[in-house]
Amino acid sequence: MSEQTTRTGQTTHTDVVEAGEQMAEVALTVNGVPRRVEVPVRRTLSDALRVDLGLTGTHVGCEHGVCGACTVLLDGEPVRSCLMLAATADGHEVTTVEGLTEEDGSLGPVQQAFVDCHGLQCGFCTPGFLTTITAFIEDNPDPTEEEAREAIGGNLCRCTGYHNIVASVLRAAELARGENGEAEATDQADGAAADDEAQAAGKNGKDVPREAADGERQVAR
Amino acid sequence: MTIMEERQAEIGRPRPRKEDARLITGRSRYTDNITLPGMLHLAMVRSPLARARITGIDTSAAASAPGVVQVLTGADLAAEQGSMPNAWPITPEQKTPPHPAVAVDTVNFAGEIVAVVIARSAAAARDASELIDVDYEDLPVVTDLATAARDEEVIHPDLGTNRSATWVFDSAQAGTGGDVEEALANSEVVIERTFTQQRLIPAFMEPRSTVVDPTGEQITMWSATQIPHVLRVMLALTLGVPESKLRVIAPDVGGGFGGKLQVTPEEVITLLAARRVGKPCKYTETRSETMMGAHHGRDQLQTLRLGANRDGTVTGLDVRLLADMGAYLGLITSGIPILGAFMYNGIYKFSAYRFECTNVFTNKVWTDAYRGAGRPEATFAIERMMDELATELGMDPIEVRRKNWIAHEEFPFTTVASLEYDSGNYEAATDKALELFDYEGLRAEQRRRRESGDPVQLGIGVSTFTEMCGLAPSRVLGALDYGAGGWEYAQVRVLPTGNVEVVTGVSPHGQGHVTAWSQIVADRLGVPFENVEVLYGDTQVAQRGMDTYGSRSLAVGGMAVVAATDKVVEKAKQVAAHMLEAATEDIEFSGGQFSVRGTDQGVSFNDVALATFAAHDLPDGFEPSLDSDATFDPENFSFPHGTHLAAMEVDTETGQVRVHKYVCVDDVGHVINPLIVDGQVHGGLAQGIAQALFEEAIYDESGTLLTGSFTEYLVPSAPDLPEFTVDRTYTPATTNVLGVKGVGEAGTIASTPAIVNGILDAIRHLGVEDVPMPCSPSRVWNAIQQARTSGQQAPEPEVAP
Amino acid sequence: MRPVAFDYIRPDSVEEAWQALADDDDATVLGGGQSLIPVLRFRLAAPTTLVDLGAIEALKQIREDGEDLVIGAMATHHAVAHDPLVRAHASVLAQAAASVADPQIRYRGTVGGALAHADPAGDIAPAALALDATVEITGPDGTRTVPARDFFEDYFTTDLQPGELLSALRVPKHTGWGMHYEKFSPAAQSWAIVAVAAAVRTEDGTVAEARLGMANMGAVPLRAPAAEQALAGRPTHGPATGEAAARAGEDTDPPSDLGGTPEYRRHLAGVLAGRAVQTACGAAGAVEG
After folding, report:
1. Is A31 exposed, middle or buried (0-12, 13-18, 19+ CB in 10 A)?
2. Do A62 and A130 belong to one domain?
3. pLDDT of B405-440, one tens digit each?
4. Distances (CA, A) of B624 to B5, B589, B611, B621
5. What is the ipTM of this complex?
6. Domain edges within chain C
7. How many domains does chain A have?
8. Identity of the residue in B203, B286, B510 whose CB atom sits nearest the CB atom of A121
9. C259/B778 CB distance under 8 A
10. Computed over its alpha carbons, how large is the radius of gyration of chain C?
């Protein structure tokens, strides 16, 4: 038995490696930063990201390739990091949820869309959706609602019923195209929310400011 | 002394959530993210057999495997592990089998834990777990509910029966209605039906995970739980650990839906393991372990008899249930069907009602809370029956419901099941739904397709619902023999700068309480939304609480926040009066400003906060703090309701079913944040539709779970679901000052019967009378085939397992 | 769950891959890993060596070779679905590839991996059968080709011998043919309960030749000879093709599982074949003009 200690960031992980277990030196670029880890070859990319690199934003929901929570971008393409060995990612570029913010620290278009459209509840599946959608709107900058639905078919969410995630895909595409999209969203704001605004206004005897009606309300359709 | 600014009300505003920023940038704090110095990892060895005697366990190879620190069996833990708690003995005679966290002598479901490996890495623990050799002696397995109820084979021999308890409600005895047998005997029509509520898996997206750190003065447990407070007291009671020596933290929790409303063997084991080795221990389950080892939901056989007159007036309802407990009684396993007992009458005025439920053990993982818990079962049954009645009488399904529901002017209304519904407007919700749905237009389309013999037929499914939310008045829980109260706690702390910390006893895991509570407090204290911080989920921070389930958080927990906030204002008024040299009675508070009635003199909330902190000049005897707490016990349940309409397409050639249109109009009272409320409804709809169309936990005769992964257990993805048209009417609850009712379970409850009613409406003319859930393509096709060949020589069906 | 430990080799050439397979009898080839990694994680298999073909660029190519398209074993479903050559000359294969599981799986999963895994519910094989494709197999003793319809031997079992690699799928160009893939699954992500790939050549408004490949109608992917013969000579429009295609389920012994009974599957095969053929005839008619 040999003990292998890997120092990653501020956290020290101790990992036990069975005698004779083959190790791999893996060099990969994660969110633009070159990283190098030595891992047992059986280690999945999801474990390498979470355990060895301390990037716990990537979540593991099923480990058998259905839920999609662990989706990361490999050279820009969405892949399940639980269905890939870390060793296979050697030499590639990986983007995780931690890498989706803009350089100035502001939210990326998909992240912003999820906030605008209330596209997440518990947040566990969210990183996988964010990465999947990031790649999708690059391929298809102006998707239809049906295309948006199909695009997220490899990601399970148990909280949202997908309604607001589909809206988030369309909103993200708008943002990525550089469109504000407020007018459209206002037109399509569904009856319930519009009524709630009326309710709030009525109760307080004030007009609903436009900010609430469009700036904060992008749950189109 | 500033001029009061126009403030926009926060309540009712579609605020984007405060919670999102972390969760969308990877700064999440789920339990499995936690790594502590020297932390060890656990792997469980689970029984592959559904019922067996353990005749020997050889752990020697595992104990000497690389990286292994210790191996534990049930025998090792027998003296300290106690029995997993059941907090709801529904009758004094209830039979409750002992339930060790690690099986000692026998296993009673496939997936039960028989040994535990503690090792230096998760991989090493898993590798070693495969070296453990368990000898089993097979015992007869009973998986079928009805078979188990006949006691031909008794699963827990010491109990003498598989029947855990029988619970009865009878309106004649309760004085809320007549005798049901008499009513049925005098009815012009009696309809009898049997429905199966299939077994479901909650399928929260975050697998359960627990980390225990035994190295501090208190033992600290992080766990993916909905109920940190209940967990703490139950661990103390189960293990004999002083409660004050336990700290339980629910960090970010990735969904629950009732599935994490549990005190789990895995939590007990991780605590015991950490205490033994004196080092932090982590256990994170695999999805397969979730599927087989975490509690399931539903699983009931419902037999109903409904009496009515030819004009559509229902005269009485008799309900008999067999409820599948699985092998053991979890935290509230036994009470789940009872939560439905009060809801079988739905939104209707029935004059006689009787409910009888028998809880039965089988060799499957135990059932317990799953979104709706008892109420979806009840709503499904009555809403299916109302459609059956409409069919029998040749009436429109809406008309039958209209004929029987409680009219708006009849509220408050005491139901035949003894609940007092405080408010409701079923007419308004239904009318709005019909309009949004284009009911008449779709009926015309249905006729057109029927006349042309279109292979894709259209059906319209109707469901109304109400539910008892805001669990729960403590006196009611006491009357039902539940082991605890239903109050909720909050504390509001005012910081010197005027920032406000709100401590809440509820335990959010996706519901957006941080945002909603901030909106409530911002309005009531007149402070900016951004200045409110909401703290929760740690028994050392939120020292009291009853946690999150049963659509209770806002109606009970939110009201505790209101009560605590009101106390802050009362205290602050005294300070403001002192500062303004006025009488406290003359102080008015609005929009964050204290002012003297009839003058333009005033001080701001921040001024008062700072003055209280400084404490240089306070009223005589005034305790220098504005901080306040409150415990709110609701006087009644709240009763959201709604009308859901589903247009269903059925491809009669393949059995394929598609939701063509879905409209729901819910009345959840006042709305704090419409974005969040919409989201709750959407998610609930998806889960209810999933029960109707996709999901079922299936065991074979040997007790092996055939749907042990997401490949077989079909959680719908986005392309499987429609867009939803979600709208609301507003009939405030009268039993709380916020006028809120609860929304967490609404969508789940009404959507299942709406979908199934819609499918049947599409193919009833072909002779189909029922399709068991989930209405998979093969089941729908089989139902059509059987209807077509009935009367003719039906071919012998080839049976799928 | 974590897999059992194994050794890992990522060769740069086919020759190195052969060597790695020769060195360990219990070695397994890793393609895209979308089926193999779950199997390893569930510990349903424990190969001692994984030979990862991901670095062999030659296996990823999709190219023309005379009257054939040659699709490298390591071409991903995504690549096949979007490849202009495949879409032009073997569109049903592109369509089948586009229907595999979900986007993430399609970015990693490979045509060769899917064929070698030989799940009878897989999407690639029915299209390969309908296109009369052949499988290219290479080993230290040379390269051999096997018609796709002979390649599959049983559930998860193929003609691949120890030490051999599936290197490519060779697909005759079906320029001008009408094609369609009808997949019927209980949920969007799921494996097919039944799927039918149809390829038809039409002449003067009648079906001159039809081939049907079916998923999940037995232990291996199947052709539908009775339906194919019945289709020949039928008019492309009207109910005749549907009636003929309805015979697709004849003489099959499909599995009984959670998706349905054999009886249901045989019925579905007929319905789906009818729909696939009708759509394919429409596409062929459009080409025929």
Report:
1. buried
2. no
3. 999 999 999 999 999 999 999 999 999 999 999 999
4. 28, 20, 9, 9
5. 0.96
6. 7-52, 59-172, 178-288
7. 2
8. B510
9. yes
10. 19
Alpha-carbon distance of C272 to C193, in angstroms, equals 11
Task: Centre a 10 Å sphere on the Cβ of residue B204 and count the other Cβ atoms it contains.
Answer: 26
What is the three-state SS of B307-329? EECCCCCEEEEEEEEEEEEECCC
B641 touches B347 (CB < 8 A)? yes
**CA–CA separation, B765 and B759 (whole Å):** 11
> Which two three-digit tokens encode residue B46?
């689970």
Tokens of B483: 């082991």
> Do A115 and A66 reside in the same domain of the chain?
no
Identify the CATH number of the domain in which residue A25 sits: 3.10.20.30
What is the distance between the alpha carbons of residues B70 and B116, in angstroms, rounded to a whole number? 8
- The mean per-residue pLDDT over the stretch B77-95 comes to 97
Domains of chain B, with CATH numbers? 20-26+487-632 (3.30.365.10), 34-139+205-255+260-293 (3.90.1170.50), 297-471+636-789 (3.30.365.10)
Instruction: Tell if the CB–CB gap between C271 and B714 is shorter than 8 Å.
Output: no
d(CA B242, CA B634): 30
Q: Give yes or no for a contact between C78 and C87, defined as CB atoms under 8 angstroms apart.
A: no
Residue B735 DSSP code: S
Residue whose structure tokens are 């008062």: B608
Helix (H, G, I), strand (E, B) or coil at C247: helix
Average pLDDT over residues C102-125: 97
| C253 vs B: CB within 8 A | no
Angle in degrees, CA B505, B231, B251, rounded to 5? 60
Q: What is the pLDDT of residue A136?
A: 98
Measured from the Cβ of residue B441, the count of other Cβ atoms closer than 10 Å reads 10
Which chain C residues are closer than 8 Å to A151 by Cβ? 103
Using the 8-state DSSP alphabet, how is residue B416 labeled? T
Report the distance separating Cα B13 and Cα B21, nearest Å. Answer: 19
Paired residues of B134 in beta bridges:
B57
Rounded Cα distance between B489 and B561, Å, is 8
- Check residue A191 and give its pLDDT: 42
**Residue pLDDT, tens place only, B255-314:** 999 999 999 999 999 999 999 999 999 999 999 999 999 999 999 999 999 999 999 999
Residue of C nearest to B700 (CA): C258
Q: How many CB atoms lie within 10 A of CB B793?
A: 6
Residues B209 and B30: beta-carbon distance below 8 Å = yes
**Mutation choice for A interface testing from C40, C104, C107, C189 by most A CBs within 10 A:** C104
* The pLDDT of residue A180 is above 80: no
C-alpha distance from B127 to closest chain C C-alpha (Å): 7
Nearby residues of B793 by Cβ (< 8 Å), 6 or more positions away: none
* CA B589 to centroid of chain Cα atoms: 38
pLDDT of residue B5 exceeding 90, the answer is no
Looking at residue A20, its pLDDT comes to 72
For the residues C111-137, what does the mean pLDDT come to? Answer: 98
Other C-beta atoms closer than 10 Å to the C-beta of B134 total: 21
